[in-house]
Amino acid sequence: MQDSTFKPPKIPELLSPAGNLKKLKIALEYGADAVYGGVSHFSLRNRSGKEFDFESFREGVEYTHARGKKIYVTINGFPFNSQLKLLESHIQKMASLKPDGFIVATPGVVKLSHQIAPEIPIHLSTQANVLNVLDAEVFYELGVKRIIAARELSLKDAIGIKKALPDLELEIFVHGSMCFAFSGRCLISALQNGRVPNRGSCANDCRFDYEYYVRNEKTDELVRFSGKEIYARNPDNGITMRLEEEEGVGTHIFNAKDLNLIAHIPMILESGVIDSLKIEGRTKSSYYAGITTLAYRRALEDYAQGDFVESRYKEELGTLKNRGFSEGYLIHRPFERLNTQNHWSAISEGSYQVNAEVSEEGKSALCRHTIRPNEPKEIVSAHLDSVCLGKNDIGEIFEKNGKKYLRLFKILLVNGKELESIHSGNENAFILPFALPPFSFLRQRL
């Protein structure tokens, strides 16, 4: 808890992922100052890029600007010569939407973007791996307005870059998936699956469960290493190989934990050098887009009021599916190896199950996990204070231990049907007893 004389520094922009139009709207509803997303394979998330076409992305730009917020277009793939004409056309189309910035990864695309759309600010992608003043200065001289720092950049080095180049904006990742490789420069997926990470189609091979094999040099026999110890005996000469697994090292040998810097928000802000805090996750769920944005928004606002309480935000972020959390490399150097890997499982666990997503108009919801009559579900919203308590023949909203819950007495679909229960996969919306804020969620503790 900060004292009464506390004077907060300038609060940086909160930048959230927009994997599709719905997630864009959710991120803005839950407190993002800006969002980022893209269209086509020039965006470094192919799966996400396919969820936007040109018209829906145009709608997203207009929706964002109508709310006084910003939107940045991802054009951060690594193009081949055969794609340059297509890239030129794509840059022209994106510029016609008048976004607030292009996110690009290479010097050539920086130059091309300036030639085609000199009015659009350039943000340098984290894929460019800027770690020092020299590289930052080169891109600054090329006309880059903002550098999205490599995840391996330390806060100390960020301070050094800002001191040398005070007009250059710095953006850092504060939450989301971490790559096993150096800021995404990985070829494992390309070699094993033909899916190239730096062209937007990573298969996430680093999350796989790998098995260890050891070759017996005398017999050329491969022995699978799957337990604590394995003895491989050659029946001809009796040679024995003894393999012993290193304690604490499982079979997910490349699997990085997720980044979570919520505890370091005060330190980051007090450095005075960071202009934007970025949340990774365009391919993650709508719930993720909302909850991460809400947690970091509240942390920033509470800090500005001198009321930053770490446990508030950590608890909410813990409701999300995750691979375990680490502080990444902003505070600690990579070689320190301070608990950044999850060797045991790539399974994402969270403390809550999302049961339903409320529509934009707030009068109905889609089921995401089984809901039965008379089972209370917690209401999650960016505007929970506006949710009124009440009861009618469809259901009720009540409060308990400072939280608000919704209980359905009966499940009525908007098409007029009544169900005994509703399950995930049913894309028929059900009616809420009372309207809720747009894009609210219903959830239950696991």
Automatic annotation (TrEMBL):
Keyword terms: Hydrolase, Protease
Gene Ontology biological process terms from the UniProt entry: proteolysis
Pfam short name (any one): Peptidase_U32
A GO MF term: peptidase activity
Cited InterPro entries: Peptidase_U32, RNA/ubiquinone_mod_enzymes
Top-rank taxon: Bacteria
Family according to the record: Belongs to the peptidase U32 family.
Protein name as catalogued: Collagenase-like protease
Species: Helicobacter ganmani
Phylogenetic lineage: Bacteria, Pseudomonadati, Campylobacterota, Epsilonproteobacteria, Campylobacterales
